[in-house]
Amino acid sequence: MVKIAPSLLAANILELKSEIQIIEDAGAHWLHIDVMDGHFVPNITFGPDYVKAINNLSNLTLDVHLMIENPELYIPKFAENGADIITVHYESAIHLHRVVQMIKSYDIKAGVAINPATNVENLRYILNEVDMILIMSVNPGFGGQKFIKEAVEKIKHLKSMLPSEKDVEIQIDGGVNGENASELISAGATSLVAGSYIFKSIDKRKAIESLMN
Ligand SMILES: O=C(CO)[C@H](O)[C@H](O)COP(=O)(O)O
Ligand SMILES: [Co+2]
Questions:
Q1: Residue 29 placed within a domain
Q2: Ligand 1: which atom is nearest the Cα of residue 144?
Q3: Is the ipTM of this complex over 0.85?
C-alpha cells in the first residue's frame, strides 16, 4: 500500500492543529516535515522543537526530510524529539554511510534523498543500509514547484537496483498531484509526498483519496 505523506510546509501555520486533524481523519499515513537551514537550500523552516510539538499532537509517523548542511550535528535532537524517519541528502552528507548509521543508532528509520540532477547510480553502495530513498522531483527549498518529469525514469531505475531481500521505500517529493500519482506508483513509488496539492485543495480528504487511488 502506498503511503501518503502530506508536507506540512504547505499547511496553514496558524491552523496547524486542525490541518493535521483533517489529514489524519482523511487517512494520511505519514506527516512529512521539511527542515531547511538557509545554507543547503535557500529557505529556512522548522527545527527540532517543531518536531517535538507535532509529536505531542499526532500519532502519525513523523517523516523528517533534512535539507541542511552538516546533518550529523542535528540528527540526535530530531531523533530524541520524535522523528520516526530521518532522511538526509546525499549531496549534504560527506560521510553518508556514517550518517545513515548514526540515524539507525536511534532505532528509527534512515532515508537518503537525491536532488533532481543526481544520478540514482550514486546510491548503489548505500542501498543495503537504508530504509528509504527519496527522489526529489523539484529542486529542494520550496513547495508549489512544477514536477520534473525525469523523476519517473529515476524511480524505475532505482527499483531495478534494489536488493530483493530488503524492503526499501521509494519516496517521491515535489509537485506530486492527482494527475501524476498513478504514473509514479506504477513506476515503483511506495510513498508520495504532497504539500500544495493537499493543503491548497478545497477538499483535502478528496485530494488524499485521489492520490491513493
Ligand atoms: O521537500 C520539499 C521541498 O524542498 C517539499 O516536501 C515539497 O516541495 C512538497 O511540496 P509540493 O508538494 O508543494 O511540491
Ligand atoms: Co520534502
A1: yes
A2: 13
A3: yes
